[in-house]
Amino acid sequence: MDKEELKINVEQALNEIRPFLEADGGNISLVEITDNTVSVQLEGACVGCSVNQMTLKNGVEATIKKYAPQVKRVIEVNGITF
User: H or E stretch including 55?
Assistant: First the structure.
């Protein structure tokens, strides 16, 4: 899978997750993909949410890996690593 295909797959994963985040007043955006690491930014209500780390690990990372198994990790741009 080339870089463009990887980006498309990651965006598809985020589109699958986005309605759940929007329902709670949040959102997520792709920042970059480097060395099989996906950087995302949580937005809106997700920024200060007490369960955002669980959401990133169990929801976002799992869904991204379903669409793009070569992804090794997902990080939030604030520097939190999983």
Answer: none
Q: pLDDT of the chain along its 82 residues, tens only?
A: 799 999 999 999 999 999 988 998 989 999 999 999 999 998 888 777 777 677 777 789 999 999 999 999 999 887 444 4
CA of residue 2 relative to chain centroid, distance:
19
Question: What residue spans define the domains of the chain?
Answer: 3-77
Cα 45 to Cα 33: distance, rounded to the nearest angstrom: 24
Long-range contacts of 52-58 (CB under 8 A, 24+ apart): 52/76, 53/80, 53/82, 55/21, 56/80, 56/82, 57/82
Decide: 60 and 24 in contact? Cβ < 8 Å. Answer: no
Q: What fold, for 3-77?
A: GMP Synthetase; Chain A, domain 3 (3.30.300)
